[in-house]
Amino acid sequence: MNVEAGAAKLRLGIRGLRAACAAVEREIAASTTPGAVLGVLHQERDWYYAAGYANPKRIQGQPVSTREETLYDCASLTKVVVTLPLILQLIDDGVLTLTTKVSDILPSFGSTGKEGITVGQLLTHTSGLQADMNLHAQGWSREQMWDAVLASPLAAKPNIEVIYSDLGYLTLGRIIEKVLGMPLDQAAKQRVFDPLNMRHATLTPDPEQTGYAATEYDETVQGHLCGIVHDEKARALGGICGHAGLFATAGDLLLYARMWLGQGTIPAAPHTEVTGHVSRILSQAAAGTAVRTHTGHIQGSNRGLGWVLKGDKMDASGDWMSTGCYGHTGFTGTSLWIDPEFDLAVVLLTNRVYGGRSTSVAQLRAQVHNALTGAVAK
């Protein structure tokens, strides 16, 4: 992959693009992650850089190199790439509102003080729901696990703090299935993946196929998870969940980012002129509202609907991205960050949990985002 050609295509400074790629290579050399794919979108032009190994021990001891098309377990990117757009579409459709009470859709949720919790509070992690729950080690059936999620008590009073909650997005996924009358994976495919031509994106990967980046070693499979969701809750629930379970390529995620840069529009093929009627995934109103702060009253927090905004404690944008940027990370080592002011989107996919959960790509994200934002000439 020629970095000089990439800089010319993207209309970015060569120094910045080289610096971003060099940062990726340093972390691979330091064994932070066995490999990575970097995807960059600028002024409707995309470019990819793949380095290292998707699976160091995949086939008869022969390592499998990363490629542009390598599928990564996106972990919590599922929240903003699957669950968020589907909920926003249902609001666009007049079926839900941000103030719809969850218990009006899922009556069993309306217990233990949760009667007034709203869809909007789940989206912004201000519902007061606890962050997590051990579902996978109880010997429960799938329905018992769902019953436990919906019956879980509050950890705090609503709307006074941000508690980043997988349970909230599990519940949102359940709302989508109830309202649309179809499984979440089908809804995502019909309403998001197919319209955006996200050809590889899926909640139902086939572990028998090749092309997946391996994640953590797991005793139950006597090997590294590959094409099997890493998140234990999602795995126990069959992988089709609102908080985790998405597998996608960097190209899939840049198509999704392009839609957000277009304020909800379905992107045309790159470098083609769009005329006439513009199709949409989301209304301009929904796309705009989602990236405005909804937690300004909570100290140390700056969250939109689903998205992490500049200055939030989970902000991974680095130093140079603008105050209008937004994004999200995934536990396995994935991230997506979008900056409309610079017409820039960055996907960084790593499998940093391959050697365990102690390594971090937080500094790598900041370094890559700084380098690429610094490469934008305005």
Automatic annotation (TrEMBL):
Cited Pfam families: Beta-lactamase
Domain Beta-lactamase-related, chain residue ranges per copy: 29-366
Keyword Hydrolase: yes
Membrane-spanning parts: none
GO MF annotation list: hydrolase activity
Record keywords: Hydrolase
Keyword set includes Ion transport: no
Annotated PANTHER family: BETA-LACTAMASE-RELATED, BETA-LACTAMASE-RELATED DOMAIN-CONTAINING PROTEIN
Protein name: Serine hydrolase
